[in-house]
UniProtKB/TrEMBL annotation:
SUPFAM superfamilies: FAD-binding/transporter-associated domain-like (SSF56176). InterPro entries: Diverse_Substr_Oxidored, FAD-bd_PCMH, FAD-bd_PCMH-like_sf, FAD-bd_PCMH_sub1, FAD-bd_PCMH_sub2, Mopterin_DH_FAD-bd. Coiled coil: none annotated. Signal peptide: none annotated. Keywords: FAD, Flavoprotein, Oxidoreductase. It comes from Ancylobacter dichloromethanicus. Gene3D superfamilies: 3.30.465.10, Uridine Diphospho-n-acetylenolpyruvylglucosamine Reductase, domain 2. The gene is cutM. This is Carbon monoxide dehydrogenase. GO terms for molecular function: FAD binding; oxidoreductase activity. Residues 1-175 form the FAD-binding PCMH-type domain.
């Protein structure tokens, strides 16, 4: 099947992009790894596609004392290959390496992953665990939100009409920081059925846990001391989050969360 007819625009700057996206029915595109298939299946029928892939502001990398601000149009492959600096001890490259297939990683972008808000995507869960923030720009100006506040549900975000993601800021983590990440897929490169990311940074006292691949938004525990200290509390976390209705999925999620916690000690360095 082919996409329905649409207009195409390539603005020169963020202001032009937000102006074009203010029109009802307009959709942004960068890597196109999510929107492209939806266009071809006619699940999405925008009146206009606004190409933001080459906007300089969305390709920047800005080092800050407390972390790094990444432009939204940076690709998964650029993180995987170390083409951009990492404010963590290699956590971003490790996660990027496990996203889908190399062809997808070459085109897909970190901002696009967040905007699509697929519960089974790697970046939303990872960035929520790392305490990252999403930077937005629109007709009303610029703002930023923590990842867990930006994603409202499955394929649902806090983006306002005419707004785009301009970047993602990831906090700097110490050399002693540890990160555990596990996901369960039926087939390598396919969508995850269960997913969990855990961060422990002794120097800042940070202990965060995020559970993805749910039917809604990620479950984020900003203070995960109880879960990390007593793995048996994982059952209670899943039940409180409404993730225990299906016995088989409950067992799978419990195992993935426990494996992510165990990986804190087994994978202190990137694979």
């Amino acid at each position: 099947m082919k996409a329905a007819r649409f207009d195409y625009r390539r603005p020169a700057d963020i202001l032009g992009a937000t102006a074009a996206l203010a029109d009802e029915g307009a959709k942004p595109i960068a890597g196109g790894q999510s929107l492209g298939p939806m266009l071809n299946l006619r699940l999405a029928r925008p009146s206009c596609v606004v190409d933001i892939s080459r906007l300089p502001e969305l390709r920047r990398v800005e080092e800050r004392p407390d972390g790094i601000l990444y432009g939204a149009a940076l690709t998964h492959a650029e993180f995987e290959d170390g083409a951009v600096p990492d404010p963590t001890p290699g956590f971003l490259a490790r996660v990027a390496h496990g996203i889908a297939y190399r062809a997808v990683r070459n085109r897909g972008t970190i901002g696009g992953s967040l905007a699509h808000a697929d519960p089974a995507a790697d970046w939303p869960t990872t960035l929520a665990a790392l305490g990252a923030c999403v930077h937005l720009a629109g007709p009303a100006g610029a703002r930023e939100l923590p990842v867990e506040a930006f994603i409202l549900g499955a394929f649902e975000t806090a983006l306002m009409p005419g707004e785009i993601i301009t970047g993602v800021s990831v906090p700097r983590r110490s050399a002693r920081a540890r990160f555990g990440y596990r996901k369960s897929c039926r087939k390598l490169g396919e969508f995850a059925e269960a997913m969990c990311a855990v961060l422990v940074d002794p120097e800042t006292g940070t202990q965060r846990l995020a559970i993805g691949a749910t039917e809604a938004r990620q479950v984020v525990i900003a203070d995960a001391r109880a879960a990390l200290g007593a793995p048996e509390t994982v059952d209670e976390i899943l039940r409180e989050a409404g993730l225990a209705a299906d016995p088989a999925m409950f067992r799978l999620r419990r195992e993935v969360v426990r494996q992510a916690i165990a990986a804190l000690d087994n994978e202190s360095q990137p694979a």
